# Entry
Amino acid sequence: MLKITAVLVAKILIFIGRVFGKKGSSTPGHFALMIYPNLLKELAHDIKGGIIVVCGTNGKTTTNNLARSMLSFGGEKVVCNEVGANMLYGVVTAFAQSARLSGRLNADHACIEIDEISITKVLDHFIPNIFIITNLFPDQLDRSGGMDVIKAHLTAAAEKAKGCTFVLNADDPIVSSIGHGKSNCVYFGVQGAEKAQECAEKKGHFCPLCENELAYGFYHYSSLGDYCCTNCGFSRPKTAFLATDVSVSGEKTRFTIDGKEIVSDLPGLYNIYNIVAAYAAASFYGVTLNGLNEILSGHTPQTGRMESFYIGKKVVLNLSKNPAGFNQAIATIIADKRKKDIVVVINDNAQDGRDVSWIWDVDFECLCDKSIGEVTASGLRCNDVLVRLKYAQHQNTNCKPDISAAVRDTLKANGDVLYVLVNYTALFQTQKILKALEGEKTN
Amino acid sequence: MKLTIGHIYPNLLNLYGDKGNITTFEKRLSWREIKYETVQYSPGDTIEFSKIDILYIGACSGSRQHTVCGLLQKQKSNLKEYIKNGGAVLAIDGGYQLLGHYYKTGESLIEGLAAVDMFTESGGKRAVGDSVIKSYLSDRVIVGFENHISQTYIGDNKPLGQTISGNGNNGKDCGEGVVYKNVIGTYLHGPLLPKNPHLCDYILKCALEQRFGSALLEPLDDSAELAANAYIMQKYGGF
# Structure
């Protein structure tokens, strides 16, 4: 009875949240778990096929939603926290939402992204079948306590979830070291896409086992590439899922895996990692390369993942919240050869991390490209962004704290396309502004 | 006229956008048409102190501090000599801590470079947040972001400033950072210099006077930098 109440309360709260325009939410899950602490455990037990979880600094939402698209393509029912509410209560909300009022869950699979700090707590409730780790980059150091802390959480989680299969990024030394010496791991990677990454600098990455500086064969971005430790011999493991013949500069993203050409609208090298990771996991449940292009063409990305609008010209919104993600966004923008202008929105609310020092690890120098016209700094920390652009020697900059004013003014510039790069708390606010402007233009 | 910036282990000491501090030194020199060279030192390199006008030691996580301290022990006496002779040093966070006698964490004790009479003990509540300090070096406040779980005690040395907001060295004596001869150590990153051009120019002036006997720094248009400084001052400093 309590279980039914818990599911009912969650569903009512989800409904109320929707009326007020909330998307992903943790509140319903919080109440549901208070009413019936075994709820998540029992609902997860009802999953007939497999549970895939996704952890990692960047690409969690995209990878998780791609895995969902792949698994649900044949009509199978998949539980998914698609908007990215990825702490314990957000996960409970996703399961409760899919449950029947009887308290039972009728679903074939679950694809769940989980915040790295929350993962061990979630594993108290269920152990997944597949555990994907996308990458580990420096992110929100004032909130997380740093890379050492995140790695410790994931190592503890890997110990707890011993029985599952780990799908790990071979190109990321810290991620692959979590699988070091374990047999139940498969690795994915991307081979030789250096040309796509003109701005990348391969210095300063250290062996996770012995702290010696790593040497790289090919190098992609942040710490990703073909690394090798000359001191202890730790190196990029052999990949079971490998993307080759990568092209990210045309209108479509293209690569080859096992001789099959894959084409996607998701731009950027980082999205090739996301696709390969999701495919690696989904392949355990019968998804094959033959159907992959069709699945990808029907896949809709989440809010703010290179999301397109049309406001007299094309406008692209992208979430860019740490140096690795931001530098990938810049690389993707530079690969677009049209004339463009840029708005950068940086807030320092609690969910963003209060510390904005990371913007100095973003290669804003690369924006001094002749295809880029105006760059406008916006958001709560627009002053910091403006200083960063000044020291990157960008000549054509503005500073407009108000996001709407920043977007409207920069739309007047000469570019063929406007890119709007935002960090976390600015995302939904900016999306709303862009939708409203798009509406004004069409009416 | 040319200044040389010695950047210690940029690959190891780079936690909080540290290269922003180096960029600020470089740009503020080049905008005044003063030549500069930045020499990056890697572990194992001998640091040529006689060539250096400004030594920069950046931030690192606790686990890496041990490695860095060990690597720098061999250069200890040369560093002390450099400092004694008035060489300019800017040391941030982990780099700041290792200038002292030791860094004590629980049972273990990391031996510091003993270049400044101070010491650090870990423990207590982590101090995280934007910080505003009033320094005797300038009329304008210095702003930055602190993130440390350790307490630093600077003995009879002068602090870089008094905290208007933030935890400072140890949360007890209202002092933040240290000034000893031409050494500045601080927990403040953000990074520190872009939002504090007055502090950057103070260090450049020290270095120029040390090398050439006098220093004349042309004023620059600092409106963007000072707006960023004022935003933090108003939000956290209360004025």
Notes: The domain at 2-123+176-220 of chain B is CATH 3.40.50.880 (Rossmann fold). DSSP finds six helices and twelve strands in chain B. Chain B touches chain A at residues 10-12, 14-20, 23-24, 27, 61-64, 67, 126, 128-130, 145, 147, 189-191, 194-195, 224-225, 227-228, 231 (CB under 8 Å). The mean pLDDT of chain B is 95.
